[in-house]
C-alpha cells in the first residue's frame, strides 16, 4: 500500500512543474500537487517514515480503463473511492479477494481503509482540484460517503470520467428535501413533508401535520444528527435554533408512528438491471443503527411491498452500485420511504457472512459491469450488532475490547474492528455479526454477548405450533410441548377447531409462516379434519396426532389422517403419541441446525443409558425384587 499526500505546491515546485511533462497550470496556479506535507527545512532533512518515503517517490502510472498493463484479477480497471472510512475498508477487503485495485482519497492518514487499500491519497474529497487530480488515476470513480464535491463529479462526467453512481444521484441524495421531492414525483410512498424557511411557515406546518413534528436539516444530516422533534408549538423556536436556524436549510415531516424500521439493499448494474437483498429490520439506539436482524420478521406481503418500493426508488436514480433504502412500516402495514444512501450501508454489513454475495463485492460488480451476484442468504438467520463508543478515550476502548473478547468465544460470531484511532461516545468503532440456524439461535447468542447491555430483544416467535380442536385434547397434546421445551425451542399451544371456528383456522394456517412457525402439530379425534384442513392452507409441514374417541379408540382418527389426497401430505403419528410428534418436530428443525441435532443425539443417549441401567438392575435383582 502506498500513501500520497495532496498539499499546496511551493513557488519552486510550481516553476519546476512548467518544464515537466505534466499539464501547465497556466495563469491560475494549481491548488494541489502530488508531494508530501511537512515544513521546509534549511538543514538536512530528518529520517522519513515509510509512509513519507513512499509519498516522496514519483507516482507510477496505474492501469486505467482499457489502457496500461492488465490487472491480474476480474477487471483491469482501478477503482477510485472518495472516502476511506469503514465502508471503504470493507470495500477494499472485498476487492482484494477479487484482485481489484482500489485507490482511496481521504484526508486522514490513518483512516480505516488506509491499511488495506492498494494506494491511499491523502487529500480532501470536498476539494474540486484534489478530486480532479485523483480521478486521473482511476478507471472508475465511486463513493463510500455521499458528502463529497458532487459539482466536480458532474464536470468530470462531462469530460468522460466514469462516475458510479452518477453525480446527479449524489446531488439528489445530498439534499434530503430535494430527495423527498424527487421520490414524490415518481410516486414513491413517503411521510408528508414541506419546506420551512420562517417561523410562520413552520407554525403553519405544525397546524397542518400536528405534533409531535419532525424537523430536519436538508444537508449533512446522518445518524440522528440534523434531526429534532418539536412536541408542541412553543418548542419550535428552540428546535429551529438547535439545527442552525432557517438559513441552514430546513424542512419538516409529519410524525410517522411506525412499528418497525426496515431496510432493503438494492444493487443496480450498469445496464440498469437490479437485484434486492432480503428485507432486514434495523433497531436504533439514540437514532443510530444499533442492531440489524436478518431477515426481518414480517409477512411475505410486507417483504414484497418493501422490496417493490425500494426497487422503484432506485430505478428512478442514475448510475450503478449498491444503494440502501431505509423504510418505515406503519401500524396499518403501509411501507413509507425514509431515505436512501447511494453506497454500501450499515444495514448490509451482515451480508459479508450471511449472503452468497456481500454488499461490498456486489458494489464492485455493479460499478465495473461484472454480472451481479446472488443476494440471497446462505445462513437461515443473522444479527449484526454495532460496536458504538460507550465512553471517551481509553475507557471506551477497554469496554469495546471486553465485548470483542466475549464475541470471540461465541460460535458463528465474526468481529469487524475498524481501527479508528480515536474513541468517542456513540462513534461506530466496529461491528459483530452472528449467523446461525434460526432467529432464536442468533438472538440467544446476542444475549450472551451483551450480558448486561441495554439491548433487550423481543420475545422469540414460536418455531413450533401445537393446535387441537378442543381443550379435552390437552391432556394428550401437552406431552408434545413438554418434550419441545426440553430443547429450548419457542413453542405455542392453542385451540383451533376446524368445525366450530373455521375462520380462525383459516387465518391461523395462512399466517403461521409469517409469524415464524416452521412445524405444526395438530391433534384431532373423530373425523380428524384439523390436520388435513390446516395442511391444505399452508406449505409448512403438519404432523397429525390421532386422539382416542369413545367409539373406535382413535383408530378412526388415524385412518382419516393417513388417507389424505396426493399433494396434501400430513405426517401421522401413533394414537395419542404427542411426545413423538414433538420430538419429530425438533428433529425436523435440527436438519439445518447441528447444535440442535447434537442435543437430540444426547437425548437419545440418555434414553439408551436409562434402558441399560434398568436392564442391569433387573439382571442383578431378579424380576420379583425389581417389581417391588
Automatic annotation (TrEMBL):
* One annotated GO biological process: purine nucleotide biosynthetic process
Identify the EC number(s): 4.1.1.21
Residue span of region Disordered: 1-45
Tell me which Pfam families the record gives.
AIRC (PF00731), ATP-grasp (PF02222), PurK_C (PF17769), RS_preATP-grasp-like (PF22660)
> Per the record, where are the segments of Low complexity compositional bias?
1-27
- Cite the InterPro entries for this sequence: Ade2_fungi/plant, ATP-grasp, ATP-grasp_carboxylate-amine, ATP_grasp_subdomain_1, PreATP-grasp_dom_sf, PurE_ClassI, PurE_dom, PurK
**SUPFAM superfamilies named among the record's database cross-references:** Glutathione synthetase ATP-binding domain-like (SSF56059), N5-CAIR mutase (phosphoribosylaminoimidazole carboxylase, PurE) (SSF52255), PreATP-grasp domain (SSF52440), Rudiment single hybrid motif (SSF51246)
Reaction equations catalysed: 5-amino-1-(5-phospho-D-ribosyl)imidazole-4-carboxylate + H(+) = 5-amino-1-(5-phospho-beta-D-ribosyl)imidazole + CO2
Q: What class of enzyme is it?
A: lyase
Question: Hey, which pathway is this one from?
Answer: Purine metabolism; IMP biosynthesis via de novo pathway; 5-amino-1-(5-phospho-D-ribosyl)imidazole-4-carboxylate from 5-amino-1-(5-phospho-D-ribosyl)imidazole (carboxylase route): step 1/1
Domain ATP-grasp: residue ranges = 180-368
Keyword Signal attributed: no
Which keywords does this Swiss-Prot/TrEMBL entry list? ATP-binding, Decarboxylase, Lyase, Nucleotide-binding, Purine biosynthesis
Q: Which domain of life is it from?
A: Eukaryota
Any one GO MF term held by the record is:
ATP binding
HAMAP family (UniProt xref)? PurE_classI, PurK
Instruction: State the similarity comment.
Output: In the C-terminal section; belongs to the AIR carboxylase family. Class I subfamily.
The identity of this protein, by name, is phosphoribosylaminoimidazole carboxylase
Amino acid at each position: 500500500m502506498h500513501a500520497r499526500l495532496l498539499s499546496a505546491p511551493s513557488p519552486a515546485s510550481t516553476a519546476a512543474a512548467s518544464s515537466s511533462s505534466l499539464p501547465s497550470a497556466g495563469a491560475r496556479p494549481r491548488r494541489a500537487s502530488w508531494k508530501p506535507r511537512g515544513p521546509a527545512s534549511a538543514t538536512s532533512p530528518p529520517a522519513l517514515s515509510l509512509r513519507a518515503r513512499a509519498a516522496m517517490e514519483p507516482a507510477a502510472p496505474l492501469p486505467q480503463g482499457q489502457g496500461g498493463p492488465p490487472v491480474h484479477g476480474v477487471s483491469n480497471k482501478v477503482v477510485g473511492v472518495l472516502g476511506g472510512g469503514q465502508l471503504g475498508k470493507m470495500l477494499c477487503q472485498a476487492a482484494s479477494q477479487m484482485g481489484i485495485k482500489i485507490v482511496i482519497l481521504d484526508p486522514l492518514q490513518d483512516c480505516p481503509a488506509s491499511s488495506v487499500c492498494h494506494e491511499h491519497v491523502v487529500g480532501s474529497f470536498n476539494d474540486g482540484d484534489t478530486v480532479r487530480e485523483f480521478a486521473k488515476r482511476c478507471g472508475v470513480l465511486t463513493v463510500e460517503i455521499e458528502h463529497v464535491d458532487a459539482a466536480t463529479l458532474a464536470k468530470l462526467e462531462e469530460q468522460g470520467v466514469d462516475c458510479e453512481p452518477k453525480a446527479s444521484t449524489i446531488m439528489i441524495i445530498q439534499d434530503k428535501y430535494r430527495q423527498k421531492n424527487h421520490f414524490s414525483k415518481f410516486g414513491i410512498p413517503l411521510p408528508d413533508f414541506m419546506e420551512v424557511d420562517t417561523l410562520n411557515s413552520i407554525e403553519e406546518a405544525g397546524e397542518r401535520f400536528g405534533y409531535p413534528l419532525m424537523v430536519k436539516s436538508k444537508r449533512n444530516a446522518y445518524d440522528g444528527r440534523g434531526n429534532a422533534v418539536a412536541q408542541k408549538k412553543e418548542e419550535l423556536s428552540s428546535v429551529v435554533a438547535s439545527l442552525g436556524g432557517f438559513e441552514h436549510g430546513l424542512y419538516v415531516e409529519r410524525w410517522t408512528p411506525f412499528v418497525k424500521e426496515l431496510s432493503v439493499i438494492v444493487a443496480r448494474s450498469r445496464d440498469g438491471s437490479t437485484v434486492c437483498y432480503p428485507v432486514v429490520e434495523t433497531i436504533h439506539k439514540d437514532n443510530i443503527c444499533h442492531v440489524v436482524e436478518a431477515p426481518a420478521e414480517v409477512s411475505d406481503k410486507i417483504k414484497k411491498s418493501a422490496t417493490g418500493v425500494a426497487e422503484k426508488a432506485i430505478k428512478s436514480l442514475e448510475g450503478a452500485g449498491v444503494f440502501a433504502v431505509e423504510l418505515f412500516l406503519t401500524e396499518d402495514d403501509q411501507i413509507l420511504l425514509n431515505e436512501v444512501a447511494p453506497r454500501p450501508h450499515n444495514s448490509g454489513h451482515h451480508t459479508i457472512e450471511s449472503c452468497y454475495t456481500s454488499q461490498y463485492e456486489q458494489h464492485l460488480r455493479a460499478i465495473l459491469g461484472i454480472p451481479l451476484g446472488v443476494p440471497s442468504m446462505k445462513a437461515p438467520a443473522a444479527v449484526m450488532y454495532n460496536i458504538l463508543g460507550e465512553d471517551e478515550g481509553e475507557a471506551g476502548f477497554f469496554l469495546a475490547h471486553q465485548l470483542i473478547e466475549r464475541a470471540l468465544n461465541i460460535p458463528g460470531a465474526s468481529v469487524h474492528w475498524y481501527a479508528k484511532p480515536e474513541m468517542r461516545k456513540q462513534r461506530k468503532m466496529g461491528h459483530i455479526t452472528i449467523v446461525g440456524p434460526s432467529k432464536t439461535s442468533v438472538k440467544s447468542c446476542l444475549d450472551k454477548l451483551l450480558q448486561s447491555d441495554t439491548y433487550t430483544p423481543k420475545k422469540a416467535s414460536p418455531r413450533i405450533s401445537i393446535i387441537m380442536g378442543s381443550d379435552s385434547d390437552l391432556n394428550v397434546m401437552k406431552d408434545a410441548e413438554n418434550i419441545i421445551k426440553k430443547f429450548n425451542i419457542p413453542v405455542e399451544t392453542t385451540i383451533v377447531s376446524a368445525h366450530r371456528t373455521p375462520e380462525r383456522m383459516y387465518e391461523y394456517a395462512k399466517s403461521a409462516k409469517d409469524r415464524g412457525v416452521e412445524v405444526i402439530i395438530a391433534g384431532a379425534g373423530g373425523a380428524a379434519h384439523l390436520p388435513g384442513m390446516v395442511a391444505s392452507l399452508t406449505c409448512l409441514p403438519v404432523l397429525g396426532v390421532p386422539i382416542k374417541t369413545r367409539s373406535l379408540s382413535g383408530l378412526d382418527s388415524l385412518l382419516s389422517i393417513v388417507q389424505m389426497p396426493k399433494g396434501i401430505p400430513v405426517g401421522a403419528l401413533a394414537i395419542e403419541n404427542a411426545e413423538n410428534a414433538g420430538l419429530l418436530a425438533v428433529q425436523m428443525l435440527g436438519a439445518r441446525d447441528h447444535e440442535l441435532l447434537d442435543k437430540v443425539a444426547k437425548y437419545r443417549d440418555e434414553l439408551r443409558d436409562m434402558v441399560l441401567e434398568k436392564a442391569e438392575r433387573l439382571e442383578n435383582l431378579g424380576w420379583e425384587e425389581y417389581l417391588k
